[in-house]
Amino acid sequence: MFISCYASGSAGNLYKIESNKTTLLIECGLPMKDIRHCLGTTIDDVEAVLLTHEHKDHSKAIHEFLRLGIDIYTSKGTAIACGVEKSPYVHFIESEKVFIVGDITIMPFKTNHDACEPVGFVLRDNKDILMFATDTYNLEFNVNKISQLMVECNHSYEILDEKLKNGQIDKSRYNRLVKSHFSLENLKTWLSKNDLTCLKEIYLLHLSKQNSDADEFKQEIEAMTGIPVYIADENVIKTGNYIMPTSTWECVPKPSTRSNFFYKIFREE
Ligand SMILES: [Zn+2]
Ligand SMILES: [Zn+2]
Asked: Which Pfam families match (predicted)?
């Protein structure tokens, strides 16, 4: 599947997934005008939005999408927390119950976060199995034969411990972070327990501005797995400063007279 990361992190999240026939968004956590900037006319292709949880950095534009009549797939708990549970366009999903949108089969799974009923997703088309997990302090769900992984790598314990020692963060903030977001160390443990033989690429999501080191995280995960790692940089929405993927990928500014601040990522043939 084609993956476009437009925004990732506590300032907003927006990802587009395209199969042969179907375009989905995962999350809609930006103001609608920014989402329109990002997607351009491809917003008309969006068949549905998959929403992991109610926090504004993931759900900000949900009401606008519903006004456009676009289907939202999310848990009942998330829908209630967003106040959209009565909308005819909201479809309740349940952990480990499969549903289909276009030619993509989707299985939600439970995540662990300070939210009502958060989920992650496994998406499957005729080519790929993509796993998406963010805003979760642990990952109990394993999938065989994933080919694309989009996963949170919010902080490292090493950085947090150092900051705690120096008094740069207090214990309650420390505890909140490790009980709500996924760390580099936990990601490495999860990767070590999973079959990665089909995995082609890894996207690290939702890096903390203060408590992460993008270059180091990328290097460590690449060294461990031997698989290309891309950082979904939250600056993408503000500056177009998307971190250039490696040689098999290319960043192309989408032609636009209004703005050139975003990039569409596509796979080179
Ligand atoms: Zn978040
Ligand atoms: Zn959250």
From this structure: Lactamase_B_2
Tokens at 234, concatenated:
């939250």
- Dist. CA 123 → ligand 2 center (Å): 21
- Give, in order, the Cα–Cα distances in Å from 242 to each of 80, 105, 235, 252: 34, 29, 7, 10
CATH numbers and ranges of domains, the chain: 2-267 (3.60.15.10)
225: CA distance to ligand 2 center in Å?
27
| Ligand 1 centroid distance, CA of 104 (Å) | 24
State in Å: Cα 206 to ligand 1 middle.
7
Ligand 2 (ion): which residues have CB within 5 A? 55, 135
Distance 112 CA to ligand 2 centre (A): 10
Give the distance (Å) from ligand 1 centre to CA of residue 218.
20
What are 201's two structure tokens?
């690429």
Going from the Cα of 257 to the center of ligand 1, the distance in angstroms, rounded, reads 31
